[in-house]
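Reopening this ticket.

The earlier resolution said the output was attached, but the attachment link was broken on my side. Pasting everything inline this time so it's all in one place.
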Amino acid sequence: MRGDGIDPVWQDLGVIERLVREARRVAVVGLSARPDRPSHGVARYLVAAGLEVVPVNPALTEWEGRKAYPSLTEVPGHLDVVDVFRRPSEVDEVAREAVAVGAGALWLQLGVVNAQAARLASEAGLDVVVDRCLAVEHREVVGWS
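Inline output:
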């Protein structure tokens, strides 16, 4: 474990590359309707790159024509990645929901560091990425922009 609480395995470049190449359906937890918010920009990038984005935010009913869900437990179908834009103190519940719905991975965005949530997801068999931006990593691996 590094001094910042991030286990190096949660930034494994092989895992990041595999997730970026294989993920097709991504839940964006904490997606904002405000265009100036990072979650909005990342979600728009992912849509433009051809991924299916599932908005998860109890304050939204839809985002850019897509149905929004109040929680992961209400999202139908499999989620390849759960991309989290929430305060670190709020991530434990998101991790529990990601495990409960059988998501493939828990991805905590830049600045979202919660070792307990990451461990919970990892111990349940999910791939985990912490403190990395999915859009930046996608652009680096796939070269799409």
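Reporter confirms the inline version is readable. Strands lie at 25-29, 52-56, 62-63, 66-67, 81-84, 105-108, 127-130. The longest strand covers residues 25-29.
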